[in-house]
Amino acid sequence: MKNRGGSIALVSTALLLLTPFLQTMAAEAASSDSVVYSISAGRTSPEKLSGGSVRGDIYVAWTGPVSGSVYFALDPVIVDGAIKSASYEHTERYRPYDLSGTSPSGAAAAYDTRDLSDGTHRLALLVGRDGTSPELQVVSFEVRNATVTPAPGAPPRTTMVSADFDDQAAGPVSPKSFNEQVGPSNGDTGAYQGMTYAADTRGSGKVIRTHLAANKYIDSSGEGRGNVLMVKLPGSYDSACAAYDLRFSDGFGFSAGGKLPGLLGVAPGTPPSTPEGGGSTEHGWSGRLMWLGPTAYRFAGEGGNSNMAVTYLYHARQTGIWGDNIQWHRPFVADRWHHVEQCFIMNTPGRADGKLEAWIDGQMVVDRSDVLYRDDPAVHITHFDWSVFRGGGSSLWASPTDGYVDIDNLHLSRS
Length: 415
Ligand SMILES: [Ca+2]
Prior knowledge:
By secondary structure, the chain is mainly beta. It has two domains: 13-143, Immunoglobulin-like; 158-414, Sandwich (Jelly Rolls). It has three helices and 27 strands. The chain has helices at residues 2-16, 20-32, 175-181; strands spanning 35-38, 47-48, 53-54, 57-62, 70-74, 77-79, 82-85, 88-92, 97-98, 111-112, 119-129, 132-143, 158-163, 171-172, 195-199, 206-212, 227-237, 239-248, 257-266, 284-292, 308-314, 324-327, 338-345, 354-360, 363-371, 381-390, 403-414. Strands 13, 14, 15, 16, 18, 23, 24, 25 and 27 form a nine-stranded antiparallel sheet that branches. A hairpin with a 2-residue loop joins β6 (77-79) and β7 (82-85). α1 (2-16) runs antiparallel to α2. The longest helix is centred in the first third of the chain and has 15 residues, at 2-16. The protein is globular, with a radius of gyration of 23 Å. It starts with a helix and ends with a strand. Mean pLDDT is 90; it is low at 1-26. Calcium ion binds next to β16.
């Protein structure tokens, strides 16, 4: 964050040499960057609130220059540049300037976003300026506490798995602990090589960290090649969702791409790995998440991006042996927590009326209702596939740099 802040400051300095109009724009951009949030009372790992997606307790602060006080107003009504009303107000007279106040020990008090509806909200700040009137800042952000936004009339959802990994000791992930938290899967310790319970960069708790070693991909051998763990769901379902928090390590080399967890379904007697890796979709489908890089697909580099997210879908209607990329039109950002979610509703066998919905950081990015997951009526949603690896089936998918992927707050639900 510090390095990025430095480059923003350099850009701003360059713009200041241009026109007064650009000068104003640059100042506003730099100021909105000073409204940050953390998920810890210690304000660790702050991220920009502007454009962010938040849930639960958050700790918002103004970190820019102040002479005097900072007044916060949530969802303000602003008339002629003046704040007429707000759903929540708070004034801080001394640094640190916390949205919900500062305790005597110096810790920030929490603001509970569950007091807000899910969706877009605005926070206005009046920041004191010596000798001038306070400067008005307004930032927009998304609140997203509901795991899934159910359609009107949709049946209630049942949680199958809810795992935060916070009670685990730091160190290697054992088959026993994984199976207790996520569900029945491989009992062989070797299948978990490269997976550790690691400290959450957001301040407290644990996450599952998967090491993706330099120059390795899924068909390499040993630690750092990534993992595929098939988790049997408690039953067979026709509507299910998989959601989790996801973070790529700082400076992660996205290279050609790799796989991330998702759901799949196979008919009784068909191994769950069948509708993957170029296998048959006659008796199964799969819907993992992928990041793709521009060396694999040109679209993944559009706009100067290093990668793009897609649903990697194996389905009965696909024309080749490989699955189809359902584009999310959104990149992952290294060293940033993302919240991803995919929901699958099975089609009437033989009819293309299945649904695929996907969200990243509270934004719906896929909304399809024409998917033909299955021709075989014996196919349902039966497994969660914890895939975290680079690949692709060749060393072209490896990266020259070492990296890792953190996953947390796994939530599997069905209706
Ligand atoms: Ca956790």
